[in-house]
Design a protein that fits this description.
rod-shaped, 7 strands, 10 helices, alpha+beta
Length: 339
């Protein structure tokens, strides 16, 4: 294995990227060594500056570096040790915010398993994020930073991350809605689409996203009811607005899930109706063919006493009787069908 493969997209200490935000200056990219120096000298650094460090948990060196250079709450390390995707958690531990939030993976496909988590530890002068798999919202946030967008505080960076999550969810819902529109158009044209599995997969994916992401705005609102002392003024308002935008995106996803559910019910009703028509047609054919089959079975027996056996017009008489009986059965059956 080559060394660059063993780092899983990060440096030797597990740092994927790091940025230093200082008042009146564009974000500056820092590596793990520069980040360690800044953390050691942070009491002498400008008061409103803060650091964003993003680590890859797939690199075993990440946690060792964090424990060596940072004093983080034990809750954060507990979150790091939990690899399962559970509910969203957002807690205040002393002066820090510790969170586990969900996000779509970077190469998202409409697969219910294409969701992962990111662990956050947010302090007045530090924004720390760690993930196991590359995530789409985090990468969008990095794109905004690389474009030169400045952030005044770690709380404002958190608010922007929530907006990016809402944007990713809206994009997924928009693409899902486009796929649902195509299936609905086929259904309105009385053509049963072959994408019934796709419709079910879309619903499973959206339901999973909704279940995992819906608790996040509520957890943030609970936190804002008793925020830490360093979240006040504009930071408080930014977080509140971001939580509202995220809650709206989750509500839109829930509405789309209901639409897919109704479409599935309509599709199932259409399939059942076609199945019933097919079975009724087969029943009619069976009933109409019953006299012919019965008479053919009786006349096919090699015994004596077969009616009209000596009559030169016997065959035509039997055929006429069968046609008449079949016509009566057809009249009765088709008349009941019209009723």
């Amino acid at each position: 294995m080559r060394p660059e493969e063993a780092t899983y997209g990060s440096d030797k200490h597990g740092l994927v990227w790091g940025y230093l935000f200082a008042p009146g200056q564009p974000p500056a990219h820092v590596d793990s060594d520069a980040a360690a120096e800044w953390l050691a000298a942070s009491p002498r650094s400008p008061q409103n500056s803060f650091l964003w460090l993003h680590f890859a948990l797939s690199n075993a060196a990440s946690e060792r570096w964090l424990r060596s250079h940072l004093t983080l709450p034990d809750t954060f390390y507990e979150f790091l040790g939990s690899n399962s995707i559970g509910s969203t958690r957002l807690e205040q531990d002393g002066d820090a915010l510790v969170a586990v939030v969900h996000d779509a993976v970077f190469d998202f496909t409409f697969d219910p398993a294409a969701v992962s988590t990111v662990c956050l530890c947010i302090e007045p002068r530090l924004f720390l994020s760690a993930r196991l798999r590359p995530l789409r919202s985090i990468d969008r946030l990095r794109g905004a930073v690389k474009a030169g967008q400045g952030f005044r505080s770690s709380a404002e960076l958190l608010a922007h991350l929530l907006r990016e999550q809402a944007g990713v969810l809206v994009d997924i819902a928009r693409e899902s809605s486009s796929r649902v529109d195509l299936i609905e158009d086929k259904l309105l044209e009385d053509r049963i689409p072959l994408g019934r599995r796709e419709l079910a997969a879309l619903r499973r994916t959206l339901v999973r996203l909704q279940r995992l992401l819906a608790p996040e705005p509520a957890a943030l609102f609970r936190l804002l009811s008793r925020p830490p002392g360093w979240i006040a003024g504009d930071n408080f308002e930014d977080l509140r607005q971001a939580a509202e935008e995220f809650s709206t995106a989750v509500s839109d996803t829930a509405a789309l899930v209901e639409r897919i559910k109704i479409l599935q019910e309509e599709l199932a009703a259409t399939i059942n109706e076609q199945t019933n028509r097919t079975l009724f047609t087969l029943t009619i054919v069976t009933v109409l063919a019953l006299p012919i089959n019965l008479v053919a079975s009786l006349l096919g027996m090699n015994v004596g006493g077969i009616p009209f056996g000596e009559n030169s017009h016997g065959f035509f008489l039997i055929v006429a009787a069968l046609v008449g009986l079949t016509a009566v059965l057809a009249y009765l059956t088709l008349g009941r069908r019209r009723d």
